[in-house]
Amino acid sequence: MKVTMIGAGYVGLVSGACFADFGHSVTCVDTDPSKIEKLTRGEIPIFEPGLDQLVATNVREGRLSFALDGATAIAEADAIFIAVGTPSRRGDGHADLSYVYAAAEDIARHMKGFTVIVNKSTVPVGTGDEVEEIIRRVRPDGEFAVVSNPEFLREGAAINDFKRPDRVVVGTDDERAREVMREVYRPLFLNETPILFTGRRTSELIKYAANAFLAVKITFINEMADLCEQVGANVQEVSKGIGLDNRIGGKFLHAGPGYGGSCFPKDTLALTKTANDAGAPVRIVNTVVEVNAARKRAMASKIIRAMDGDVRNKTIAVLGLAFKPNTDDMRDAPALDIIPALQDAGATIRAFDPESMHEAGKLLKNVTFCDGPYHAIEGADAMIIITEWDQFRALDLDRVRTTLKSPVVVDLRNIYQPSDMIRRGFIYDSVGRPTSHP
Can you list the domains of the chain with their CATH numbers? Predict the structure, then answer.
């Protein structure tokens, strides 16, 4: 089938490359000239493990291409996916749908014959109706169906998530559109992937409900971590103890500095706004948004307490800046709250992240970016772990101990064992486990 992806960002590029690998002919269209130029040269503008090889293979074999002008790709497509950004709108927190609407108008002007228009962007309930109205207004004679097909990709594991998903959700009541979507996802049918067909509005809500539920789960275990610290319990053991219950499950029960990234912060906020407008407020999610924002700020206070309550004129080495490992995504990363708060308290920051320092440099001021973890801790008064990259899990702790000016380690991801850190002479603090001193 001929597939056109409007938007060559994270979702569009990963989805387009995977569809091409399924055997479809895919064109990714984007209005950013520099992005299209890079992709045409074989440069990948985002970091996602395995994506560079997947793109290169499918470009070489003629199944994947890139275009700045989407007129031809739209006209020839059997299915057109809208995969543009829907950031939080300034001022009210609603999802900004201007890019979705612009894509709908462009599709309407150029589509030919029966076309399935698939919204893969995360959008509030009812957006599919609005897209349909826009296209109908521009092309009253057009033959088309608007479908909701939310993505459930985890950054750092997106290719595997796309090719081996837990489920595929398709929202449409149009039988012709269902047949097209069955063909688009036929390789997954062969793998017996559950494909759930629903109404369009139901599909749109499933995406928000899923992300909100996971955000609730993360925030719950973070609050349990705070309680553990006060009563002398261990949050990792609490997580295991409740996660072994099949009704709960162990995923997303890892305490840390709060959630961030491209999805949870904006999607929880958008859901609360939609729910309030509908007269059915989601009070649990409202609280989660507030608690998560406060938690990020509280992590700076935790670090300051570990350094005897004063970081003025002290140097802090920060390991990890991206919101999670295996990505360069800095959107709503906890580091963006923690580092400025430490600087406001008088600290000097040296930082290292394997992939995100270029993006972090646009968002953080007066930070010395270093060549590696040991470079970052040279002469520092404390080492702080914010993102659990694999290369931070097996540091030479004896070298860390001798390189640091003071043996203070604050581990916001609980990747080291308190007993081992004590034995090595560290003043060690982590999340939801008793503070440990030598």
Answer: 2-198 (3.40.50.720), 208-289 (1.10.1040.10), 296-430 (3.40.50.720)
Residue pLDDT tens, the chain, 438 long = 999 999 999 999 999 999 999 999 999 999 999 999 999 999 999 999 999 999 999 999 999 999 999 999 999 999 999 999 998 887 777 889 999 999 999 999 999 999 999 999 999 999 999 999 999 999 999 999 999 999 999 999 999 999 999 999 999 999 999 999 999 999 997 778 899 999 999 999 999 999 999 999 999 999 999 999 999 999 999 999 999 999 999 999 999 999 999 899 999 999 999 999 999 999 999 999 999 999 999 999 999 999 999 999 999 999 999 999 999 999 999 999 999 999 999 999 999 999 999 999 999 999 999 999 999 999 999 999 999 999 999 999 999 999 999 999 999 999 999 999 999 999 999 999 986 555
Which residues are catalytically annotated?
263
The Cα 206–Cα 122 span in angstroms is 10
Q: Are 66 and 27 a contacting pair, CB within 8 Å?
A: yes
Residue type, 35: K
Is residue 428 within 8 Å of residue 409, measured between CB atoms?
yes
The predicted model scores a pTM of: 0.92
- Compute the chain's Rg from CA coordinates: 24
Residue 304 in contact with residue 341, Cβ under 8 Å? no
Q: How many of the other CB atoms lie within 10 Å of CB of 190? A: 8
Strands (E) in 17-121, as ranges, are 25-29, 64-67, 79-82, 115-119
3-state SS track over 401-435: HHHCCCCEEEECCCCCCHHHHHHCCCEEEECCCCC
Residue 95 DSSP one-character state: B
